[in-house]
Amino acid sequence: MAIVVTSPQTLYGKILNATSLDASGTEILLSGTAGKKIKIKHVTLNNLSAGALDFTLSGAAALLGPVSISGNSSLQWDFSPLLFLATNQDLTITATAGSIMAFIQCFIE
Question: β-strand 73-84 against 9-10: which pairing, if any?
Answer without folding.
Answer: unpaired
